[in-house]
Amino acid sequence: MFNQLGVIGCGLMGGSFALALKKAGLVKRVVGYSKSPSTTETAKRLGVIDIAAESALLAVAGSDIVLVAVPVAATEATFRAVKHLVDPKVLMMDVGSTKCDVVDAAQRVLGKQIGSFVPCHPIAGKEQSGVQAADATLYQGRQVILTPLPQTDAALIQKATDVWSALGCQVLKMTPQNHDAAFAAVSHLPHLLAYAYFSTIANQSAGRDFLSLAGPGFRDFTRIAASDPAIWRDILLANKQEVLAQSQRFRDMLARFEQLLQQDNAQALEALLQQASEGRSQWQMGQLSGNRPR
Amino acid sequence: MFNQLGVIGCGLMGGSFALALKKAGLVKRVVGYSKSPSTTETAKRLGVIDIAAESALLAVAGSDIVLVAVPVAATEATFRAVKHLVDPKVLMMDVGSTKCDVVDAAQRVLGKQIGSFVPCHPIAGKEQSGVQAADATLYQGRQVILTPLPQTDAALIQKATDVWSALGCQVLKMTPQNHDAAFAAVSHLPHLLAYAYFSTIANQSAGRDFLSLAGPGFRDFTRIAASDPAIWRDILLANKQEVLAQSQRFRDMLARFEQLLQQDNAQALEALLQQASEGRSQWQMGQLSGNRPR
């Protein structure tokens, strides 16, 4: 049980965490700060936070748990703004989709406060963004990856594990490097492809007519192309080496499919489609493999 | 009201049509044929069809409405097998996802029976295939594209329109060429990309570990990669010129995104992401644009 949660960035992720912690009865009071005063105001009006703070630093003052839920490129500036009030017993977490850059920022900025910081990535989200989309059940049943630093306080890693578990999450630990390689493959690349695909269609002269004919397959395939552009600008740039490497692999595979089409090679094409179709049919979300990367 | 529906190909599409027609009280009896006898047997056991036919021709005998629901590459052979029993008053439709090849096959094969054939493409489906996945509500609320031939009987076009409307569909008419260009863009290309993307991940040495970490974005983005490989082999090959042209456009757009990443051009990258995100947020399935291609 915490006395006060300080949320920096009252968007979808931060707002949902506040609502979830309240719903679970794990916090007495939520203080929130957002860069845009209207967001902080809306968060208060919707009951997502109890008290609006005038600055990130004031959201940390008196808090025993802090969630930094800003676009990843804003993490370093946020650390700089709040570090003076991060007491060694405070649990400070983030929710960034990339971890090497966040960990590097923490190493550069946090100094002796670094023990308080537990880098987190909850595998949850939806295409809507903003505090209006905040949802107490967003994290329920999801995985959360922790990528602790060598200096992170072991007791706070345990505390972070306990909090996410109490929200119904499955908690895993990985290195920031393995995290970023894996999420370039299963999250960042699909977002890049979905954005690029939607742009491909929308920018054709017949694009509007085409879009009016699109069905449920298109709907699901492009859902993530409606994600927040500022968030995804930061994620793609922060993890660009891994993302570009995965995109290269993808282009090679697409070229293989195209070649078989060009050649009318029905048999080899079906074999490739079949392998993917079977693999995808067997896949289940959140089902852990035997040998997980550490 | 029809006396007898003949279904050739008792899979997801054919089975769902039979169930929907029965549910709407539009048919007294359903006779079904599938290439695999075990499928026909399962269709009968599940109540999807009333009578199992020993051949495609026998499924047409005595039917006043016929649905050809086979992979598009099997359409021509099916026409050849049944044409002798297609009476001028019989309504014969297909459900193929490509239309130029189906219309060409009809022109080659159907001879004086061609007036009976109304080429149809219902924009419906799910990733499961086979008669077990048949669903009386599959077509409800969906669009159906008709691409009639010059020789198609006008009264049968009206009858086809009435049947699909009675199942809750919105019926549109287009040329086969405009149909195939549009669906290369909004359906065939996304399937190709989803298959190629899933293969990219699954064929990496760490692929299994990566897949165990994938979340809801990945789930929706790859749903269509679980589609039936034989069906999609045929569709991609039948419409390969349009599909390859769309894939080329996509690769150009992806290269533009990659270049902005390489250059760390955050502003231009965000502008591209923003355009796609806004476009996708405003898109609604089945919302017709003002100037539809004919």
Q: How is this structure best described in words?
A:
The structure is a homodimer of 294-residue chains. The first copy, chain A, has 294 residues and is α/β, with parallel strands linked by helices. Chain A folds into two domains: 2-174, Rossmann fold, CATH 3.40.50; 178-282, 6-phosphogluconate dehydrogenase C-terminal fold (Orthogonal Bundle), CATH 1.10.3660. Chain A has helices at residues 12-23, 37-45, 56-60, 75-82, 100-109, 154-166, 176-202, 207-212, 216-222, 229-238, 240-262, 266-282; strands spanning 2-8, 27-33, 51-52, 65-68, 91-94, 117-118, 120-122, 143-146, 170-173. In chain A, strand 5, helix 5 and strand 6 (117-118) form a beta-alpha-beta unit. In chain A, helix 4 (75-82) runs parallel beside helix 5 and helix 7 (176-202) packs across helix 11 (240-262). The longest helix of chain A is centred in the middle third of the chain and has 27 residues, at 176-202. The first copy, chain A, is globular, with a radius of gyration of 21 Å. At the A-B interface, helix 7, helix 8, helix 9, helix 10 and helix 11 of A face helix 7, helix 8, helix 9, helix 10 and helix 11 of B. Chains A, B: This is Prephenate dehydrogenase/arogenate dehydrogenase family protein. Chains A, B: Residues 3-291 form the Prephenate/arogenate dehydrogenase domain. Chains A, B: Pfam families: PDH_C, PDH_N. Chains A, B: It comes from Roseateles flavus.
